[in-house]
Every structure is written in C-alpha cells, then in structure tokens.
Design a protein that fits this description.
19 helices, two-stranded antiparallel ribbon, globular
Length: about 475
C-alpha cells in the first residue's frame, strides 16, 4: 500500500516537474497551448444544454465558433447571442471575454506563476514581451523587467476600473429604455465588458438597436473601445506619466499618434464616401453624418458594434473598412490586426528609404532593423492568412468577394463587424472562420517565438548580392 502511494506521489511530482519545465522553458508554446485549452473548455461548456435558452445541446460547429470568438474577443456570431444563450451561458461568455482580453502572453505567465510558484526569468521576459514584443526575440534583460509587476497590476486594475466606470455611465441610458433596474445593471456590465475587451457581442435582450440614436451611450462605447484598443502598456505609461509626455516611450507615442490619425482619417473617408447614401447614414444632417462616421471608424479598431447594416455600405467604404480593420489597434491590447505600430514602422522605413537615410528613426530615437523585419513578417503573415481563408470560403459559398473578404479580415483582426456573411456559413465555413480568428489572435510574434525556442547565432557571413526590387 505504501509502495503504491509512493509511486503515485513520484508520478505526480514527475508530472508537475514536466509541466513546470514546459512553462518555464517554452512559455510561448505554453501560451498557445493554454489558448487552445481554453477554447476547448469553453466549447464543451457552451455545448451543454444548460447554456442554451431552450435547454438543447448546441452543435459542435456553433459551440466551437462561439468559444473561439469569445476567447479571441472577436465578436462574430453564428447564432443570436441575445436569445440563443441562457443567463448562465451569457455569464460564461462574459467570463471568457475577460480571460481572452488579458492576452495570450500575460495569461500564460500568470498561469506559469501558479504552476511553478514563481516567475522565472523567461516568464518575466514573456510578460515583458507584452510591453515590448521584441523582448521575446532578444531574450535580454533590457526588456523592462522592472515594469513586469506594474504591467500585470495595470492589466487587472485597468480592466476592473474602466469597465466598472463605463458600466455606470451606460446605466442611465439603459434604464430610460424601460429595463428593470437589476437587469439594467447586468446589461450595462455586459455592454461595458464587450466594448472594453473589443469583443462586440450584444448579449442583453434589449439589443443594440434602441441605442443607435443615443449620443451619450454611443460616445461612452467609443471611449471604452478606444481605451481597450490602445493597449495595456500605453495605459500603464499614461497612468504613471500623464503630465510628463517627454518620458513616454517611442511605442507609446507611435501608438497614440497612429491611433488618433487613423481614427479621424477613417471618419473623414466615411463622410466623403457615404455622403448621399440613404441606405447607410449619408442622407442625414452633417452633424449626424460626422458622428456616425467617427463611430464606425472607432469600431474598426476592433470594437465590432454597428448602428446599421454594414452590407449597405458602398463598395469603396467596404474597402476602407477592410484596410482599417486589417491594421487594428495597439500592441498588447484587446484589439487585433497587424497593429498600428507595425504600420507606423513600415511608413517610417519607407520615408527613411526615400530620403536616403541609412537608418530609420522617429521622435529623436533610432529604430533597429530587426523591428522592421518583424513588421514585414507580421504583415505577410496577416495577408497570407486572410488570402488563404478567403479563397477557401469563396469555394465553400456563393457569396461575393467583397462580403467574404470583409468578414475574413474582421475575423483575423478580431473585430466582429459583419456584412451578414458569417451568419450564412455552414459547418465547414464555421471551422475555417474559427481557425482564422485563432491565427489572428495568437499573433505572429507569439507563433514565431513558439516555433523557434532559441535564436541561432550565425558565425559566418555569405557573399552579398543585390536582387532587383521594384
């Protein structure tokens, strides 16, 4: 008997040691495995009869799609989110969006801390990778390790404080719609969490339609989406150095400048392109057109809410939306896409090349060449994922390219906006879109770090030869 207990204890210790080694040595792979595990868990939970409003089992395709959309904080849906799920199911979905919003890297490090009782240097570097993704490639101590604890605290506090504050501000608008005060409080929390996490789910039974003309409600929804999309490192920097912008890092400055520029540039583009379009909002007075354009531009960051049927947009506006969604929000944020800093680095490199500069820089700082290589890799990864998914879905459906491409980019960038194409998918199409959401959410940097456990050092240089480019 004692021998059996001893063997069991040894096996348990050995298993714990293997898991601890896997967490500390290959944290990026652990992050991906954790994300897959969470999707599998929520797929199982959402398939239970108690999770649906009518008490029936939700099919595998719909359960998997909803679980992936929840954990990846995408917001696309193949079922009516407000009526299909029970109250318990909606609570589970809200919890899933909170877990997904924390981020792959940060969550993996927190779970690693739980498993191994401590944060190893590799794990601290991994969390620092949420502040600066290049840290995972360098693996050096110059990655802001001192700020790791502050980042983790910022993630937790900012989510709670911002979501609670937005919920309180949304509460009066919901009450004015005649909703019971207790139910209205739950609805306010659901809208707030969905906006800050950039999920875009409409879980309350009251729906989103009653608020499409409520300037107060829509304005605070935009604020929540913007705060969720700028990224936790930016929130951390602003919370500590709001009055000292000279101490902001290049990442913070680039993120804020690019976010604000794309937000207003997108709004201006929508105003011009949708002017006179009665099917959207182009026949309304100028102030309403300006507000609707700004709201749509903010939602392309990854928010996922819309005040009208997006299939009524002109094709030129659909293309603009595709581009804005593909860029997405800030790094280490609840938003998806290739990230605004990636686009900014590419433009900085292009300007440097046009001016004949040997190196690229911004805000009186030099940007290393490996950052540019990573930016190019991110764009290529995103474009390839979108292209492959679009080709497959075009083969599986009879929809046009404009609607298919729109929803595929929305899935990859975890935006949640849809032309209605996603709702028409059959089971194979749902699996393709689920994979697209997953590949978009885990990110190129995480995937690259998982596939390359260590960076090889090349001890020789090959002969140089320049191919013709352009």
């Amino acid at each position: 008997m004692s021998n059996g207990l001893t063997r069991g204890r040894n096996l348990a210790e050995r298993a714990a040691g293997v898991l601890s080694h896997f967490v500390s040595v290959t944290p990026a792979r652990f992050a991906i495995a954790l994300f897959i595990g969470m999707i599998a868990l929520f797929t199982f939970l959402l398939s239970l009869p108690v999770m649906s409003a009518d008490g029936t089992i939700t099919g595998l395709a719909d359960s998997l799609f909803t679980a992936t959309s929840t954990i990846c904080v995408t917001g696309l849906a193949t079922v009516d989110m407000a009526t299909h799920w029970s109250v318990l199911g909606q609570v589970v979905i809200v919890i899933g969006t909170q877990l997904g919003a924390v981020g792959v890297l940060t969550m993996a490090s927190v779970m690693g801390l739980i498993v191994s009782r401590r944060l190893s240097l590799r794990q601290r570097l991994l969390v620092a990778g949420d502040v600066n993704p290049m840290a995972m490639r360098r693996g050096s101590s110059s990655s802001g390790l001192a700020e790791v604890g502050g980042l983790l605290l910022t993630v937790a506090v900012s989510m709670i404080v911002i979501e609670l504050a937005i919920a309180i501000l949304l509460y009066p608008s919901i009450l004015l719609k005649g909703v019971d005060p207790v139910i209205a409080a739950g609805d306010a929390i659901a809208f707030s969490t969905s906006a800050f996490t950039n999920t875009g789910f409409v879980l309350p039974n009251v729906g989103f339609d009653p608020f499409v003309d409520d300037i107060w409600f829509l304005s605070w929804m935009m604020v929540a989406v913007f705060l969720g999309a700028i990224g936790f490192p930016v929130i951390y920097a602003l919370s500590h150095n709001l009055r000292r912008p000279h101490r902001w890092s290049v990442h913070v400055k680039l993120t804020l400048v690019a976010m604000v520029f794309l937000m207003f540039a997108g709004a201006l583009a929508y105003m011009v392109l949708e002017w006179g379009n009665a099917d959207s909002y182009g026949d309304q007075p100028l102030p309403e057109i300006a507000f609707e354009s700004l709201f749509l531009s903010v939602m392309t960051r990854s928010g996922g809410f819309s005040t009208f049927d997006l299939s009524h947009l002109r094709e030129s506006s659909l293309l603009v939306t595709d581009m804005l969604m593909f860029v997405g929000g800030g790094s280490a944020s609840t938003a998806g896409g290739i990230k605004v800093t990636t686009l900014a680095v590419l433009f900085i490199a292009a300007f440097a090349e046009a001016r004949g500069n040997a190196s690229m820089g911004v805000f009186e700082r030099k940007i290393p060449g490996d950052v540019l290589r990573l930016a190019v890799s991110v764009v290529l990864w995103g474009a390839t994922t979108v292209a492959v998914a679009s080709i497959i879905l075009l083969q599986l459906s009879d929809a046009g390219l404009d609607f298919v491409l729109f929803d595929v980019i929305s899935a990859f960038a975890t935006v949640g906006l849809s032309t209605g194409f996603t709702a028409t998918l059959d089971d194979p199409g749902k699996y393709v879109m689920s994979a697209t959401m997953f590949m978009g959410r885990i990110g190129t940097v995480t995937l690259a770090a998982a596939l390359a456990a260590s960076q090889r050092q090349q001890l020789f240089n090959r002969a140089e030869e320049r191919p013709i480019v352009g």
